[in-house]
Amino acid sequence: MPETAEQPLKGFIAKFEPAIGRLIRDCRSAMRKRFPTANELVYDNYNFFVIGYCATERPSDCVVSLASNSKGVGLSFYYGSTLPDPHHILQGSGNQNRFVRLEGVATLSEPQVAELIDAAEAQADPPFAKTGGGKLIIRSISEKQRPRR
Predict the structure, then answer these.
(1) Domain count, the chain
(2) 116: CATH
(3) Is the predicted pLDDT of residue 3 greater than 70, yes or no?
(4) Which domain holds residue 78?
């Protein structure tokens, strides 16, 4: 039986403490509901385990990503520096990326966070498809990684 992308994804998440693994799975489920036509691009890199939500298969088209390490999970906005942030909840000081720490899956539906997700989707180019479904794509796996626990 051929291996699906779900199988290695489960293995990546299993590297984390159970509570963080559960948070990753819960947040992924919420993001799939929010972006049902998005492609999920998965990276198990040195510093972070990342699931990006994109209209295409190009990483630069990612609107948001779940980024996880041993300390927890964040919602990363690839073009966060261009988003309106009237509540000043975005963290980070890079030229482009900004993020919000996710204390729990409920953080995703807090009004200030939902506004940021909506704003990021509104500026997505290309936009997400209106119908259909996205693919789960394992993009990269680093041999060396920081501990996930």
Answers:
(1) 1
(2) 3.90.1150
(3) no
(4) 6-141
- pLDDT tens digit string along 27-81? 999 999 999 999 999 999 888 999 999 999 998 899 999 999 999 999 999 999 9
- Per residue, the 3-state secondary structure of the chain, as one string, reads CCCCCHHHHHHHHHCCCHHHHHHHHHHHHHHHHHCCCCEEEEEECCCCEEEEEECCCCHHHEEEEEEEECCEEEEEECCHHHCCCCCCCCECCCCCCEEEEECCHHHHHCHHHHHHHHHHHHCCCCCCCCCCCCCEEEEEECCCCCCCC
With respect to residue 126, please indicate whether it lies within any of the assigned structural domains. Answer: yes
Q: Say which residue the tokens 């990269």 belong to.
A: 140
Q: What average pLDDT is seen over the chain? A: 92
* pLDDT tens readout for residues 112-131: 999 999 999 999 999 999 99
Inside any domain, residue 16: yes
